[in-house]
């Protein structure tokens, strides 16, 4: 499967205009069978890379998913990551902050859930909510009890983008590779998926009046995403803007991006020293003697 992921990567230092980024591209599969085959092959490779990640114990991987409702975050995580060992991967979803979380800075609640070395962490929404939903609904800021002098609109967002960039640079220096996905869904496709959630009883639980309410702020959200990605897409921690109107295609692109990032780490299994090799030989001899007669 030949996918050039560079064209989905948001450039550093350039203003993002989402109207110029497609929500749908020509599919990288020509049948459902081909899609399953391609995704299965990538999942096998991801499984191998995860084992290397754990064995080398030098790096960790943080994958961030951000999107409008119904863009396919949950299904992307489910399908792309289904082949990896669950013992080495954790998924965190960030909802409305608790009273305890509100007593800390905006990065605290996600920082404590960062992946350890050798592990994969997936954030289904993340600290980026603090420059997205909080920017669209500015009244949320009142509950965070931050100093009044830092609440003016001229400095609050600039400061938060800087805090995020500083955090991600720090994590990169210490071995955490960060991949950030924005699932770029069209407003029309969201409408269709909302109707589908109403029409199919098994999906009714996924839909609420709040979804319709948030849809009314579509343009404000798009503006918030544009500014956010313009300010925080860096050379080491870029945003990938994934066309999300075709879920299958989006999954293939996402799996390829994750694979490329892991392969770039050029991980290897730990080398066995001469001393350790000698120990293993002795242990093998012990096991051979312990063979049932």
Strand order in the sheet with the most strands: 2-3-1-4-5
How many beta-strand elements?
Answer: 5
| Major sheet description | 5 strands, parallel
Q: Report the portion of residues in β strands.
A: 5-15%
Mean pLDDT: 93
Secondary structure tally, helices: 10
Radius of gyration: 22 Å
Helix content: 40-55%
Terminal Cα span = 52 Å
Structural class: alpha/beta
Instruction: Report low-confidence residues grouped into runs of 5 or more.
Output: none
Overall morphology: globular
Tell me the series of helices and strands, N- to C-terminal: HEHEHEHHEHHHEHH
Question: What can be said about this structure in brief?
Answer:
The protein is of the alpha/beta class and 293 residues long. 45% of the residues lie in helices and 11% in strands.
Structure commentary:
The longest helix is centred in the first third of the chain and has 25 residues, at 32-56. This protein has a five-stranded parallel β-sheet with strand order 2-3-1-4-5, sandwiched between helices. The radius of gyration is 22 Å and the shape is globular. With 293 residues, the protein is α/β, with parallel strands linked by helices. The protein has helices spanning 32-56, 73-80, 108-111, 133-136, 153-173, 187-199, 209-215, 218-232, 247-264, 274-289, and strands at 60-67, 89-93, 120-124, 176-184, 239-243.
SSE topology sketch:
Blueprint: H1 32-56, E1 60-67, H2 73-80, E2 89-93, H3 108-111, E3 120-124, H4 133-136, H5 153-173, E4 176-184, H6 187-199, H7 209-215, H8 218-232, E5 239-243, H9 247-264, H10 274-289
Parallel strand pairs: 1-3, 1-4, 2-3, 4-5
Helix pairs in contact: 1-9, 2-9
């Amino acid at each position: 499967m030949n996918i050039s992921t560079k064209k989905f990567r948001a450039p550093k230092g350039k203003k993002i205009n989402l109207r110029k980024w497609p929500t749908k591209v020509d599919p990288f599969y020509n049948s459902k069978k081909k899609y399953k085959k391609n995704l299965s092959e990538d999942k096998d490779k991801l499984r191998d890379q995860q084992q290397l990640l754990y064995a080398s114990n030098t790096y960790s991987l943080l994958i961030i998913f951000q999107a409008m409702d119904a863009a396919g975050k949950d299904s992307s995580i489910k399908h792309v990551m289904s082949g990896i060992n669950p013992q080495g991967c954790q998924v965190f979803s960030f909802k409305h902050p608790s009273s305890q979380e509100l007593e800390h800075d905006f990065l605290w609640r996600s920082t404590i859930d960062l992946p350890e070395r050798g592990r994969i962490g997936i954030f289904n929404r993340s600290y980026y909510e603090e420059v997205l939903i909080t920017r669209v609904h500015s009244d949320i800021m009142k509950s965070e009890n931050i100093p009044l002098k830092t609440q003016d609109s001229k400095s609050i967002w600039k400061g938060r983008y800087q805090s995020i960039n500083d955090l991600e640079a720090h994590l990169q220096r210490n071995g955490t590779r960060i991949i950030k996905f924005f699932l770029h869904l069209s407003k029309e496709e969201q409408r269709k998926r909302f109707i589908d959630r109403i029409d199919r009883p098994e999906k009714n639980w996924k839909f609420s009046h709040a979804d319709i309410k948030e849809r009314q702020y579509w343009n404000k959200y798009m503006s918030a995403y544009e500014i956010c990605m313009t300010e925080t897409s860096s050379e080491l921690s870029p945003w990938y803007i994934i066309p999300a109107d075709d879920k299958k295609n989006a999954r293939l692109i996402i799996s390829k991006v994750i694979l490329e990032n892991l392969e770039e780490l050029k991980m290897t299994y730990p080398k066995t020293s001469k001393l350790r090799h000698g120990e293993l030989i002795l242990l093998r001899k012990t096991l051979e003697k312990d063979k049932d007669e």
